[in-house]
Write a structure and sequence with these properties.
The complex is a heterotrimer of chains A (about 350), B (about 210) and C (about 475).
Chain A: H1 2-7, H2 12-49, H3 65-75, H4 86-102, H5 121-142, H6 146-177, H7 182-188, H8 207-220, H9 232-235, H10 245-270, H11 288-309, H12 315-346
Chain B: H1 2-23, H2 27-47, H3 51-75, H4 80-113, H5 134-143, H6 147-168, H7 181-186, H8 189-192
Helix pairs in contact in B: 1-2, 2-3
Chain C: H1 3-9, H2 11-30, H3 35-59, E1 67-68, E2 73-74, H4 77-103, H5 110-126, H6 131-149, H7 156-187, H8 192-200, H9 205-221, H10 230-237, H11 240-265, H12 270-293, H13 298-319, H14 322-347, H15 366-369, H16 371-385, H17 391-405, H18 409-435, H19 448-461, H20 469-483
Antiparallel strand pairs in C: 1-2
Helix pairs in contact in C: 2-3, 2-5, 3-4, 3-5, 4-5, 4-11, 4-14, 4-20, 5-6, 5-11, 6-7, 6-11, 7-9, 7-10, 8-11, 9-11, 9-12, 10-11, 10-13, 11-13, 11-14, 12-13, 12-18, 13-14, 13-17, 13-18, 14-16, 14-17, 14-19, 14-20, 16-18, 16-19, 17-18
The chains are: A mainly alpha (about 350), B mainly alpha (about 210), C mainly alpha (about 475).
Chain lengths: ~350, ~210, ~475
């Protein structure tokens, strides 16, 4: 894109600057739109599974429901509890929202269509997603209220616990792909399964890691069945209890952007990203970003499905799963995979 | 140009955040400034091309260590008035130490400027592989030349882990109702549900 | 410099790490009932390492053949000699602990694991050929030691000792690291031999600072004055078997490490560090002797005694010659025997309930209650004081001889004078045991392991020990010589 702006007569620096800004907008704006629609989809799927109709009033099939909701919260008054720590109280939703957008910088939407094609793309994602916990923890503390505080404590413990196993599953992927670069990881999956299937999920050593990743992703985004941070039966609405209007909306947007990110990571890391599902030249006529979107949508459906069907975990079960099952399992697979690669690829 | 700007931005932010870490009245604010300081330090690492270290700094310090700090600080009720009471008492000592450090700094910089300090020439044992990314470089050194030390460092972490468990773990005397998850999952509807068609007024025998 | 060759040189360290991991797993699954069996297994593992190292020491291996991992690790006879002493101290700590810890309800499966890991750390320390190895080994040992000091959780003194040790130890590590970074910055290398080549032409101011900071950090670890404050508190608070361990093996390791830094990395600049070492030596001897006089608790007294002894060891280092290094090794050997013996004797002082006695007044009239114990403890005290028929005298003699040969006559004279002060409190204990009215509180029975260890260490330091001096002195001489071999 830089070259295009340069051809308009800009200097290199200006062209780079403009193209980067344009790139950011190109990702962020559709993402926000997608989040609005995905909230609608989530409610629809959930309703369908509960044999309800779901939103069906605003717009055709209720399609504009999210926008109506957005307009409503936008027009509401922001209420700050008098005992709250004002600065941090307002900072928390901003952090959640910003961090949810940051990670998209390294996601490849097509061959070479990535905002920042950096060497350490996957590490960047890990780094950014580890920041997500701050929004929750700070909001919980700054609200100066009992339920948000409990929720913050739970969130801190939960996210750190599952980040560990996520880290190890990512290490497995990186070992096999041989690079931290996201595009490199996608390309490494080309024809991975018998020279025909695109995606690491086809690999018997990586498939269990995908399962671990999927479940950890649910815990990391605090989706059901791991939504203990906002368990309405115990904590009212968790860390969001004291929030209203736009600050509340920012939490929601951030949360769903994170869910979409996790779906995207599932697609990019284990299901071939923008590659077609199988290696067949005809399928390459479909643009890569469409394949990616189909995969993302599929995983989002899985997430909604789980949310609609699986009961909430108890907190000690959550910790047990994270530390006593996923951590040893993912460690074992790091050893197995590196051993296998040493044996076959690098030759001992 | 952009690098210079970015450097001064990050460097100024590191120093300002570090200062605010000490000056903030609220311990939670202190931790937040500390996080900001880590973050900007990571930015400095990126400027010198050490992107791997930068990411690790964020993942490890910001993502894990500082969260635990925050966790603890939020749990504790630190009375700052009490802490401050001791502050005035130790103030002269603090000033003295600060002056000594300042003098050392000035002398050090002065000596360096005057060319009196001769830094050693690196012996090249950790020279980078040109053209390789810095993950590859670090990996090659850690698993090559410094393999022994790297593995031993792992043992140190193991000791720390054993230590934490030894000093804090207590066997629960009466464990809570034990849950056998495998048994729960293995339970089928047929094991639990019986369909019967009782006749009117007969009731059901279970 | 193949990996295989390097691995064969670190065989004892590999054995130690693998056994630590295996015992940890056994302990994790088997629970605390495996503690006793684990201790025995740990002793066997360490004995195995002893068997690997011993032939290398006898052969006096040194030079390039003994260097592993690009000069980071040196398996020469000097480190081997120190390792043998360390292993002996560790085995003693493993053998005497189970009975004590079981009585206070703190014998857990992790104890032998932590002792092995501490031993591994020390083993790496004495073999350090690089600043990084030095630090890694030191931290491995220190971290395990902090936990061991606080091992009896139910005892607040033990927790206090652990915390104190940890905070001050971390400070010392920080100082050491600072010194190391300065040294690296001004010499451009972390390798000991390379450092000595760089500083041969002259020591720059920065490197000088680095050296001093490193000496300070290490002085902390060997509890040399003026960095000894933690010693009495930690020794008193830590469980007695652990104190016995602290007083023996880590001292050997830290002293050997100090010798490596001073003689190997800065061996070309002896004058730069000699004054510091001389000061620390004299101050340790004097403070150790004076501080011990007022003590009522035997563990505190032994802590000051160890400070005092470190002073004498540093006299050997101050000589800066191969002879000095050899005398240090010999002193350390005798010191380990004396320390282990004294602490075992201390462990055997129990009242009728089997509780430990730690106060000096409890010793009164020990002669009439348990003459053998009293006699052994007397030998220990006389030996620590350096009174002739016992081996402690010979150890002091070789150290002074090395100092005199290196033209440090004044230092030797002052040290001799100060050792007379030290003799006072050692002899006071003997007087309490043999001439005071029996207090009648020492009644408890001791088990065979304690008796065996006590008798062995008494035999070692008894006049019988002189039979081995020529062979032993020769061994130490050859071991020390490898420190001066260029590789």
């Amino acid at each position: 894109m830089t070259a295009f702006f340069q051809s308009l007569g800009m200097t290199y620096e200006w062209a780079w600057f403009t193209s980067t800004i344009a790139g950011i907008l190109l990702i962020a704006l559709p993402l926000m739109l997608a989040v609005a629609m995905i909230i609608y989809v989530d409610r629809k799927i959930w309703a369908a599974m509960a044999l309800r109709k779901g939103p069906n009033v605003v717009g055709p099939f209720g399609l504009l429901q999210s926008f109506a909701d957005g307009l409503k919260v936008f027009l509401q008054e922001t209420i700050i509890p008098s005992a709250a720590n004002k600065g941090l109280f307002l900072l928390a939703p901003i952090i959640t929202f910003t961090v949810a957008l940051l990670a998209w910088a390294v996601i490849p939407f097509n061959s070479g269509a990535v905002l920042a094609d950096i060497n350490v793309g996957l590490l960047y994602i890990l780094a950014v997603s580890s920041l997500g916990v701050y929004g929750v923890v700070i909001s919980g503390w700054a609200s100066n209220s009992k339920y948000p505080f409990f929720s913050a404590m739970r969130a801190a413990a939960q996210m750190i616990s599952y980040e560990v196993s996520i880290g190890f599953t990512l290490v497995c992927v990186v070992l096999w792909a041989g690079t931290f670069n996201m595009n490199g990881i996608v390309l490494a999956q080309q024809g991975h399964g018998l020279g025909f299937v695109n995606g690491f999920f086809f690999n018997p050593l990586l498939f269990p890691m995908w399962v671990v990743f999927l479940i950890s992703a649910l815990a990391e985004t605090a989706r059901a069945p791991f939504d203990l941070t906002e368990a309405e039966s115990e904590l009212v609405a968790g860390y969001q209890t004291e929030y209203s209007s736009m600050s509340f909306a920012l939490f929601w947007l951030g949360e769903y952007a994170n869910v979409l990110l996790m779906c995207t990571l599932n697609a990019v890391l284990f299901f071939g990203g923008w590659l077609p599902p199988v290696e067949w030249s005809l399928l390459y006529y479909v643009p890569g970003w469409l394949w990616l979107f189909i995969k993302i949508f599929f995983f989002f459906f899985v997430f909604s499905w789980i949310k609609a069907t699986v009961p909430r975990f108890r907190y000690d079960q959550l910790m047990r799963l994270g530390w006593k099952i996923f951590l040893p399992l993912s460690l074992l697979f790091v050893v197995l995979i590196s051993g296998w690669l040493m044996l076959t690829r690098y030759g001992v | 140009m952009i690098q210079t700007l970015a450097f001064y931005l990050f460097a100024a932010m590191v120093i300002a955040s570090a200062a605010l870490t000490i000056l903030a009245r609220n311990p939670v604010h202190s931790v937040m400034w500390l996080i900001s300081s880590f973050f900007n330090a990571a930015g400095l690492m990126i400027i010198i091309g050490a992107e791997f270290i930068a990411m690790l700094l964020v993942i490890v310090y910001v993502g894990a260590v500082a969260v635990l700090f925050l966790f603890i600080v939020m749990m504790l009720n630190i009375d700052f008035a009490e802490l401050r009471a001791g502050f005035m008492k130790n103030f002269p000592v603090g000033i003295a130490i600060a002056l000594v450090l300042l003098a050392e700094l000035v002398l050090g910089i002065g000596a360096y400027r005057a060319g009196a300090l001769e830094l050693g020439v690196p012996d090249g044992s950790a020279a980078p592989i040109l053209g390789a990314s810095n993950i590859e470089n670090i990996g090659a050194l850690m698993y090559g030349r410094y393999l022994f030390l790297f593995e031993t460092a792992g043992l140190i972490l193991l000791v720390a882990m054993i230590g934490a468990i030894v000093l804090t773990h207590r066997e629960q005397r009466a464990p809570r109702g034990h849950q056998n998850i495998a048994k729960q999952i293995a339970r089928q509807p047929e094991d639990a549900i019986v369909n019967t068609k009782p006749e009117v007024g007969k009731g059901v025998q279970l | 410099m193949e990996l295989q060759a390097s691995l064969s040189l670190i065989a004892p360290e590999i054995v130690l790490s693998l056994s630590a991991l295996a015992l940890l797993l056994i302990g994790a699954w088997g629970g605390d009932k495996t503690a006793r069996m684990n201790s025995i297994a740990a002793c066997i593992a360490i004995a195995f390492c002893f068997a690997i190292v011993a032939p290398r020491v006898c052969a006096g291996v040194g030079g390039p053949d003994a260097v592993a991992f690009f000069g980071q690790f040196k398996a020469d006879a000097f480190s081997g000699f120190a390792k043998l002493l360390i292993y002996a101290g560790s085995v003693a700590a493993l053998l005497i602990a189970p009975n004590y810890l079981e009585r206070v309800g703190a014998m857990r499966a992790e104890y032998p694991v932590l002792v092995i890991l501490a031993t591994l750390g020390m083993s790496i320390m004495v073999s350090a050929g690089d600043l990084l190895t030095l630090y890694i080994g030191l931290e491995l040992n220190s971290l395990a030691a902090y936990v061991l000091a606080a091992f009896v959780r139910s005892d607040s003194r033990s927790a206090e000792a652990g915390l104190k040790y940890f905070v001050l130890g971390a400070l010392a590590s920080g100082i050491l690291l600072f010194g190391m970074s300065l040294t690296y910055g001004f010499t451009g290398t972390t390798n000991f031999n390379a450092i000595s080549t760089v500083v041969a032409g002259g020591l720059s101011g920065g490197a000088m600072f680095g050296l001093i900071f490193m000496l300070v950090g290490l002085a902390f670890k060997i509890s040399a004055v003026p960095f000894h404050m933690w010693t009495p508190d930690v020794y008193e608070g830590a469980p007695t078997p652990v104190t016995a361990f602290f007083a023996s093996a880590p001292k050997v390791a830290a002293v050997a490490l100090l010798a490596r830094v001073a003689l190997e990395a800065f061996g070309t600049q002896v004058d730069a560090w000699r004054q510091v070492v001389v000061f620390a030596a004299l101050a340790s001897i004097i403070v150790g002797a004076l501080g011990a006089i007022g003590q009522k608790n035997i563990k505190r007294l032994l802590a000051y005694s160890s400070i005092n002894n470190v002073g004498f060891i540093l006299v050997g280092l101050a000589a800066g010659t191969a002879q000095g290094a050899a005398s240090m090794l010999l002193y350390l050997a005798v010191y380990v025997a004396m320390t282990v013996g004294s602490f075992v004797a201390l462990l055997m002082l129990k009242n009728e309930n089997g509780d430990q006695l730690e106060s000096i007044s409890d010793l009164s009239g020990l002669r009439s209650v348990s003459p053998v114990l009293a006699f052994c403890l007397m030998s220990m005290m006389f030996s620590l004081a350096g009174i002739p028929p016992f081996l402690g005298f010979w150890a002091k003699l070789v150290v002074f001889q090395a100092a005199v040969d290196a033209n440090l006559v004044v230092l030797a004279l002052l040290a001799i004078a100060a050792s007379v002060i030290g003799a006072f409190y050692y002899i006071k204990i003997v007087k309490v045991m043999f001439f005071d009215q029996p207090s009648g509180v020492v009644l408890g029975k001791s088990d065979g392991v304690h008796w065996a260890l006590l008798i062995i260490s008494t035999l070692v330091i008894s006049p019988l020990g002189y039979l081995a001096t020529s062979w032993f002195g020769d061994l130490a001489q050859r071991a020390a010589a490898t420190l001066f071999l260029l590789s």
